[in-house]
Design a protein that fits this description.
Four copies of one chain form a homotetramer. By secondary structure, chain A is an alpha/beta fold. Chain A is built from seven helices and nine strands; from the N terminus they run E-H-E-H-E-H-E-H-E-H-E-E-H-E-H-E. In chain A, the strands form two sheets. In chain A, strands 3-2-1-4-5-6-9 form a seven-stranded parallel sheet, with helices on both faces. The first copy, chain A, has a two-stranded parallel sheet with strand order 7-8. The longest helix of chain A has 28 residues. Chains A, B, C, D: This is NAD(P)-binding protein.
Chain lengths: 256, 256, 256, 256
């Protein structure tokens, strides 16, 4: 007779990034992993890596984070991780779209890409997740039917000269998370938002930035994805009397 | 030989509302009026009313606030108010989309409607306006090439139980305005955002709310569109040494 | 038979500064002026200047902005501008204390000086003013028994490396203004707060800063006290349906 | 040969409250406890309780949280927990002053009491603590010389009708924490602020509130001090790449 297996769903998982590190951290807590991402090949490589470390992980590649795409992928997730053997108990919306341009250089496609990946995807993802959570029982330890967290950034709280596409989307995501936190708290669904205020040490950022020269080595000046994941696990485990909607995370030496 | 005539462009103008009152207030300052709105018939009635009061106003009806729709209508505006006889010097983005629903009742269409009218429309409108403003000379009194204001609301700064569609859009609009304010200040383009924190006395709200019974008569408990318009005129006239990005406006007795 | 004369009370008035400019602006609207400040000699010079311009102004020097000092000076103000011939209808708390030091260099005296001038003084001033306002009748044009504004700064919304004495005081002042705005709105008393986000062109700042070299001449990079005063007059005149608690004011080219 | 023993200093510790629960939680991590509080008798009872549970705890009663009182008590702490045998590595400023009154009912003594306990005490406490922290070595696991956290509340971010004494103090405390976080991050000193947004289940609150009737039993509607303490321990252990300045904590069903 087997216990129900908890599942974490992540949208936006790339090897070496926050989504992947969060997946690995929840796997260590006994979760199965449903990983949604663009880039089927890279996603499969990540899943293979997680599996070779002993995790139960499945790749759910998507062509985009449009709402129809999200809806469709959730059908596959439910087929792969069916109730009552599996129970989706945690979810991370980590998909984002990096764009920094002068306002007048932005195309409508740029604007839509940010909106779709950051806001529309999160909206559709949240509807899928919260519908599932509402059917869950309340976990005795945490008082939760489920835990949903969104990854934000400095741009989530500050508009800037080159953020006229990104900031509207990231502020929108933050507003969604606050509205959901208020609406579903009484359902014992915990919704949270993390402001990542600094550069994360990922393959992507390592390929892009080399200033200051030693930033990768110096843990005081950039975030480890694993340390962000620790924060997400902590939040997932917060007991019902003291839940956090929002926290910021930044390196010790970050100027802010 | 005639002077150049200043033009105010308003997106979102309904008789009795903030857009209409702002148009009338700028008309009294000598502006011609380009009024963009849905509902061609109502818009024409408003334009007729403004014209019968001696204003130079033109209706630019749109089927929606989608970016293509906004681009298209600006072509008509430039034809009707051509440079150098006319100069667009002020713009108000007042279009909004009222939607309050539990999150799980929201359709994707609901979500898109809010995003399109509030964020995509504002994005496209701002690109049109700022391109024009950048070509303007700097007004000697105000130090401005142009003035662009966005109408926000309580929902712009607070997510709530039934605002999971509206809040992401209104926060997004606020983020856009802040990014533009920072990017174009050095171009002497003044971008502002107003948080209207209370019910406005409009035909629409009168038809919808009757609680408390005397709220229409009692100026202490709701906003007059004319008083919001006064604030917008004030902001438009602020001299270059002291520009406001954001102010809130609420009735004297509002609980907040 | 004479009409009742309105009085503006200013705490923190130095020649060439915001307090002085606000006094002059309200004088042009017909107000008598009660000016509270440290530095009796400078204050008298300012009053003389205002009087020579035709204003009715009186100097009320204080040794400090401690609460007892504020209470005592209000007795003198009531004696000089007695009811019912005079009516205090507007008040500006503009006193501040400029201190930027590394935290560990701050003495307790430094800390107290900031707290006393910025928070304690404002607390005592507000009690004096609101007690008077509550006895006033409601002005028909503005719907106000009185208007009370506080001058804030960038430090009011952002703590920084050298603001561990100033920021607690300025945030405290902002909190006071928000609490009072909420408590006394229903009394038709308008309480506002202005965030001055930039350097003001005053004799004091001219003596202190010379970077960039042309900052004094360039109205795009610093605030005129007169333009701040215009904002304060505008706020004082806002009609009851649309009052502002807070606005920011910054030069066109300010980086923020 | 004995290892250096880490010490937690708490200001504001009452049996059953956040300070006491935090002390107990850090004791379980191997910390000695220096507990500062008013009410010598109650404090001694708390210390006795902690000692009977096996903790090393010492009572440091103070007559008030005035700066001189804080300075004096730190001399005693250093005598009792001398370097190099002991090392102060963590500190909680949890002292507060509960006051809710209409503004005009507040006495200057009320105002000063809130300022002294909440802001002046925190200022003096922080100077003592940061001076010590700067001499510490950097902990290999967390990247910290020390961890300093302040307890805030709903009033820390929102002024209200009856908070014109409390809000200026609590906003001031928050500003202090933000300034210190920015100044001392590069010293590897972690400064944090927690917004406790709800009622805490303490002997004090149980004696004061009985609405709704079952609030004490229902963990969904109020905070456990132990759960706040868990958050503080979590923050203390955050690794250097991802530190939080601020998080909020509220019960699952809290309306906000």
């Amino acid at each position: 007779m087997s216990a129900i297996k908890p599942v974490l769903v992540v949208a936006g998982a790339r090897a070496g990034g926050t989504g992947a590190a969060t997946a690995a951290a929840f796997a260590r807590k006994g979760y199965s992993l449903a990983l949604i991402s663009r880039g089927a090949e890279d996603l499969q490589a990540l899943v293979d890596e997680l599996k070779s470390a002993g995790s139960d992980a499945t790749a759910f590649p998507v062509p985009s984070y449009s709402a129809p795409s999200i809806s469709s992928v959730f059908q596959s997730i439910h087929t792969r991780y069916p109730s009552p053997h599996y129970s989706i108990r945690a979810a991370l919306y980590n998909a984002s779209h990096s764009i920094r341009k002068p306002f007048l250089d932005l195309t409508l496609a740029d604007f839509h890409a940010a909106q779709e990946t950051i806001v529309e995807g999160a909206f559709a993802f949240s509807q899928e997740i919260i519908r599932v959570f509402k059917e869950n029982d309340i976990d005795a330890d945490t008082g939760k039917r489920g835990f949903l967290i969104f990854t934000g950034s400095t741009t989530s709280i500050r508009g800037n000269r080159t953020t006229s596409a990104a900031a509207p989307a990231k502020w929108g995501l933050r507003a969604l998370s606050q509205s959901l936190s208020k609406e579903f708290g009484e359902w014992n669904i915990h919704v949270a938002h993390a402001i990542i205020d600094g550069i994360i040490n990922t393959p992507f950022s390592r390929s892009r930035f080399n200033d200051p020269p030693n930033w990768v080595e110096n843990e005081d000046v950039r975030l480890n994805a694993e340390d962000i994941a620790k924060a997400y696990v902590y939040l997932a485990e917060q007991p019902r009397s003291a839940w956090t909607w929002e926290l910021d995370l930044r390196p010790a030496h970050e100027k802010w």
